[in-house]
Automatic annotation (TrEMBL):
<dbReference type="GO" id="GO:0004419">
    <property type="term" value="F:hydroxymethylglutaryl-CoA lyase activity"/>
</dbReference>
<dbReference type="InterPro" id="IPR000891">
    <property type="entry name" value="PYR_CT"/>
</dbReference>
<keyword id="KW-0479">Metal-binding</keyword>
<comment type="similarity">
    <text>Belongs to the HMG-CoA lyase family.</text>
</comment>
<keyword id="KW-0456">Lyase</keyword>
<dbReference type="InterPro" id="IPR013785">
    <property type="entry name" value="Aldolase_TIM"/>
</dbReference>
<dbReference type="Pfam" id="PF00682">
    <property type="entry name" value="HMGL-like"/>
</dbReference>
<feature type="domain" description="Pyruvate carboxyltransferase">
    <location>
        <begin position="1"/>
        <end position="264"/>
    </location>
</feature>
<protein>
    <submittedName>
        <fullName>Hydroxymethylglutaryl-CoA lyase</fullName>
        <ecNumber>4.1.3.4</ecNumber>
    </submittedName>
</protein>
<dbReference type="InterPro" id="IPR043594">
    <property type="entry name" value="HMGL"/>
</dbReference>
Length: 295
């Protein structure tokens, strides 16, 4: 599980959290057992003010063996900032559609792939793994359905990646697409681990996540409280909630090493900080069988 609440969970919210609140969120996630956290984004804070203070956040996160913090980068300047801040991983977003790429990142897909080559090489020189996240892999709000052949092409270009993440940025995917794209990506980029990033915009996110697991995928993104969205994609609402996904995985017999109840409390805590209700359900309904009351 990769906890993306501190980055994707916050980037579309009206209320901007302080670096101290972001650090507190990360500390709560780590205390619950999370071992991979997408903590920050090294983008222009004028474009995404919710992501300001990345260096301050990275200076304050708990550094322990076995915990990896990643930072999102879109260009070489972002990578330099990330390396200076001592991230453990970098996450480079390469959209699958030109219109989304230009609106989100100011580059075409081809230009972003060229940027990826340089970022991945520099990250490798620094000994930092680089994940390529293929955004709008299932569908684009401006161009419609994403041809699966485009995902194959981009995945082949990700030969230097430590991991490829397929992102349903606007929550349009269904399980049949997950199965198809998993198999296509594996054929296009053999030996590179796959990860998925789902949004629950149309109530298919959890079904998609379980399909990915059935296909042998072992890494999923999720956001405490179910917060998240993209400021450059219309109607791109929340990520699948970490606590709700944990319920589905644990009840299905999978071990994540993350405490579900603690994560649910973090989701409710985050909702209070943001001043909006949490989209997640576990914080309201509770687990099953019900846990004994705390003493």
């Amino acid at each position: 599980m990769v906890e993306v609440g501190p980055r994707d969970g916050l980037q579309n919210e009206a209320r901007v959290l302080t670096p101290d609140d972001k650090i507190a969120l990360i500390e709560r996630c780590v205390a619950a057992g999370t071992r991979r956290v997408e903590a920050v984004s090294f983008v222009n804070p004028e474009r995404v003010p919710q992501m300001a203070g990345a260096e301050e956040v990275m200076a304050g996160v708990p550094r322990r063996d076995g915990i990896a913090y990643s930072g999102l980068v879109l260009n070489r300047r972002g990578l330099d900032r990330a390396l200076d801040a001592r991230v453990d991983e970098v996450n480079v977003v390469v959209p699958a559609s030109d219109t989304f790429s230009v609106r989100n990142q100011g580059t075409t897909v081809a230009e972003m792939l060229d940027a990826w080559d340089g970022i991945a090489a520099a990250a490798d020189d620094a000994g930092v793994p680089a994940t390529m996240t293929i955004a709008v892999a299932f569908g684009c709000p401006f161009e419609g359905d994403t041809p699966p052949e485009r995902i194959e092409y981009i995945a082949r270009r990700a030969h230097a990646a430590s991991e490829i993440a397929l992102a349903d940025t606007i929550g349009v995917g269904v399980p049949a697409q997950v199965r198809d794209l998993t198999r296509r990506a594996r054929e296009a980029a053999p030996g590179i681990p796959l990860r998925f990033h789902f949004h629950n915009t149309r109530n298919t996110g959890y079904a998609n996540a379980l399909m990915a697991v059935d296909e042998g995928v072992t890494v999923l993104d999720a956001s405490a409280g179910g917060f998240g969205g993209c400021p450059f994609a219309p109607a791109a609402t929340g990520n699948i909630a970490t606590e709700d996904l944990l319920y589905a995985l644990h009840r299905s017999g999978h071990d994540t090493g993350i405490d579900m109840e603690s994560t649910a409390r973090t989701g409710m805590w985050l909702a209070e900080r943001l001043g909006v209700p949490a989209p997640s359900l576990l914080g309201r309904a509770g687990g099953f069988p019900a846990s004994p009351p705390e003493r």
